[in-house]
Design a protein that fits this description.
The chain has 16 helices and no strands. The chain has about 300 residues and is an all-alpha fold. The protein has 2 domains: about 150 residues, Orthogonal Bundle (Tetracycline Repressor, domain 2), CATH 1.10.357.140; about 140 residues. Interacts with CtaA. It catalyses: heme b + (2E,6E)-farnesyl diphosphate + H2O = Fe(II)-heme o + diphosphate. Pathway: Porphyrin-containing compound metabolism; heme O biosynthesis; heme O from protoheme: step 1/1. It is a multi-pass membrane protein. Converts heme B (protoheme IX) to heme O by substitution of the vinyl group on carbon 2 of heme B porphyrin ring with a hydroxyethyl farnesyl side group.
């Protein structure tokens, strides 16, 4: 973390909500959901209590990553409109507290997941925390416009962790679930960057919109959306995808590709005139994209178990 001055708010002590916000609960919700999906669709089964505890450990590990990210990025968060109200830049939580919480929760989550399930899952969780806190936050985010492309791996590991918690291994279906989130991350964040570019520019974060401009970013969004559709289609090579996934795949990727083409065709004059309406709509659609794909996989698992469907 750079030598930024954080003005601590002495008017009150930090409350539970401040410390919970430190764990990035919105990001944690995606981590929990995709990990849960990976666990549900994995072959075999897991005791409900152990499964619940495993998800709790994964959630804590995701929260630990968030705390370490906020500790290191406090100087950036302080100058960005979107993040300046976070616990550290707002002065509600001291940086040293955030670091201690992040490290403690990291160790706790990894050890407890290993003891509750297996050390393959625990190892993946440990690597995920390291990747997000060190590789992405401390290195990629401030050094390259590929920060989101490579750093997206951190958010893509949870379904693989959930799968490994049940099976103790890494196989093609879990790799494809990883790839689905990995390929989704760049267009998701680049759409956000198109209408939040001033924040990244002010904070000197080398987002693609800052280093190469919005025209190049629009090109990249379309290219990665095509690659994402191909990645999502690869799930049909596994026994996980059934009729529910087929419907979700056709509808969601059709809408996503249509949205990417609309963004690609627009120029900045058009976008600024309507306050980036198309870009904001694409970003909102991206929030539903992974949720509905993984929901479809879980639904297919239930249908197959009931004898009402089968893999392609």
């Amino acid at each position: 973390m750079t030598d930024a001055t954080i003005n601590m708010d002495d008017s009150r002590e930090a409350g539970f909500g401040d410390y919970f916000a430190l764990l990035k609960p919105r990001v944690m919700s995606l981590v929990v959901f995709t990990a849960f999906a990976g666990m549900i669709v994995a072959p075999g089964g897991i005791h409900p209590f152990i499964g619940f505890f495993a998800i709790l450990c994964i959630a804590i590990g995701g929260g630990a990553s968030g705390a370490l990210n906020m500790w290191y990025d406090a100087d950036i968060d302080q100058v960005m409109k979107r993040t300046k109200s976070r616990p550290i830049p707002s002065g509600k939580v001291a940086p040293e507290e955030a670091l201690a919480i992040g490290l403690t929760l990291s160790a706790f989550s990894v050890v407890m997941l290993g003891l509750a399930t297996n050390w393959v899952a625990a190892g993946l969780l440990a690597f995920t925390i390291f990747f997000y806190a060190v590789v992405y936050t401390m290195w990629l985010k401030r050094s390259t416009p590929q920060n989101i492309v490579i750093g997206g791996a951190a958010g893509a590991f949870p379904p693989m962790i959930g799968w490994a918690a049940v099976t103790g291994d890494i196989t093609l279906p879990s790799v494809l679930m990883f790839m689905l989130v990995f390929m989704w991350t760049p267009p998701h964040f680049w759409a956000l960057a198109l209408f939040m570019n001033a924040d990244y520019d002010k904070a000197k974060v080398p987002m693609l919109t800052v280093t190469h401009g919005k025209r190049v970013t629009r090109n990249h969004i379309l290219a990665y959306t095509v690659l994402l559709a191909l990645t999502a289609g690869a799930m049909f090579l596994t026994p996980l995808a059934g009729w529910a996934y087929l419907v979700a795949f056709v509808v969601l990727n059709g809408l996503f590709l249509k949205g990417a083409i609309v963004i690609w065709r627009r120029n900045e004059e058009q976008a600024e005139a309507d306050n980036y309406k198309a870009e904001r709509a694409f970003f909102k659609l991206s929030l539903a994209y992974t949720f509905l794909h993984f929901t479809a996989l879980m639904l297919d698992k239930g249908l197959m178990a009931a004898g009402l469907g089968g893999p392609f």
